[in-house]
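#lab-general

N.A. 3:47 PM
ok so I finally got the sequence cleaned up, no stray characters, all 467 residues accounted for. can someone with queue access submit it? mine expired

B.Y. 3:52 PM
send it over

N.A. 3:53 PM
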Amino acid sequence: MTTFADPVPGGRPGDLRRVAALTADLAARDVRGVVLAYVDTAGVCRVKTIPTARLEAAVSWGVGMSPVFDTFLAGDSIVTTDVLGSPDGDLRLYPDLDQLVALAAQPGWAWAPVDRITQEGDRHPGCARTFLRRIVTDAAERHGLTFKAAVEIEWAMGLDSAPAGAFVPAVSGPAYGAIRQVELSDCTADLLTALAAQDVDVDQLHPEYAAGQFEVSVGALDPVAAADRSVLVRQTIRAVAGRHGLRVSFAPAVLAEGVGNGGHLHLSCWRDGVNLHADGDRRYGMTAEAESFAAGVLARLPALTAVTAPSPASYLRLQPSQWAGVFTAWGRETREAALRVITGTAGRRDQDANLEVKPVDLAANPYLALGCVIAAGLDGMGAGTSLPEEITGDPARYGPDEAAALGVRRLPRSLPQAVEEFRADPVLRQALGPVLADAVTAVRLGEAAAVSGLDDAGVAAAYRWTY
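B.Y. 4:20 PM
back already:
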């Protein structure tokens, strides 16, 4: 469950009734501090921490933090908009007690995501978690819709003893191979133990394609909780790896060449407990609403990349024929399509059918990414949009005329191109609101400027240990 009520000065009533018991429980477990976490526009998780004894005060009155972080770049430079980037002002961070968890790999610490409000008690228009919660709440109130979501997490494990800034894979062996699983079995077993202790249900954990790369897939939750879980799982992976003398990179491109780390989104629409992506009369069991939702996402993928692929390093990853989904195409179980329709296996389709959005990496703020994808889908649903012709195989094989006839075009090849698409998209900008939309634009252009003049190896190195 997620707390969907906005925080207010004095605290949410339900939180105040239970915070004393939660504090006592944490203290009994020798938890001495609480990490208050949120993700900024650049996709970096920023934190403040408090002693466990201060949890009730944080729940009641929040913890102060400057709004300037909404326009921080990944490298900690600051850009500005007309309302953000100033040293003036203060915000209050309010922890969501429904997501509070003791960190199994960081003894003595607990963790909670936060919502940010102004000192006057209003929603902060730059808070990505609040934005996603509003999108989900509005969809429920206006359309009777709920969603299930999950974020795939890929990462590269390197040796902590490697030369400064360098990446030396911690494990050898073929992609998806048993050698990798054996060589890092102690670390990955500890990771499974830690995630289970934090009530994170893991579907699979396995070696991936690139050097030193692994992937974990976790169970689906409501979108806000799924975004929270994505942040928590990454914190846990990093902590467990550190205990084994390993260093973790979630960067889109750890190296200039080869397959990068993805953060694919899985999403399904539900109404009254029924999955709209199964047992319908449209292609592959989709209902008309589910198909229109998918079509809305597909139509806005070029603009969405400014949110889902927000780093200059993202465009080292977004290359054809590497299963990154770099063309506006969809298909059933087609891993080169940007939008993959997953029907699930027979006997489980009513539960498992969903959409996978592939041009997403872990530099993306998961709250912004999920919120914008849902906004795009809802726009398609409202317009009754239909999906174009399905593609099979690799869309890179199409010549220009055939691709144009199918509506297949390459997604932006650079961050500035993605920003151009985003600026021209009224649906996404309206969903975000002017403050967040302008922050997205300013931060993305700031990131592009920060690495101008660097070659691909320089870009990969600049972001290798940022995410």
